[in-house]
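This section describes the prediction task in plain terms. A model, or a person checking by hand, is given the sequence of a single protein chain and must write out its three-dimensional structure as a string of tokens. No templates, partner chains or ligands are provided. The sample shown here is typical of the held-out split.
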Amino acid sequence: MKPKYIASIILVFFLTIFYFVPTHTMAQGPENFPPDKELSAKMLRFGMEAYARGKYLDAKEYFRKAVKADPASIKAWLYYDQAVIFGLAEKVEKNANIILPDVSTRQEGGISISPTPPTSPPPPEPAVKKMKESGFKIVDDEGC
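The expected answer:
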């Protein structure tokens, strides 16, 4: 009977601790910091200038800073998303191997695999010649 009594006291103790502990002492996220709207507007302006000049990777960094300064700004998020897509396109233009990688030269089990084109099958025999040899005749045409 004594172990059950001690276990129930410990359980009640932990439940009261978790119930009465304020939620703001658990963890603090970035929402506790006030947004810097002035810095966000400045970074948005710089990002829009870079974006208009076609420097999408630079614009992406400015928009990222604007989003970091004011996470609630929908305008900053929209421009950031668009700059990310155009920045990726700019990277692909510089290096096409990002999308179209080269052929692998890896060897497995000591066997060298070389990229050789597959051999083409022999050309098929003409269908008319096969029909004549098999004795195929059209008896009744349904007019499909």
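For orientation: DSSP finds five helices and no strands in the chain.
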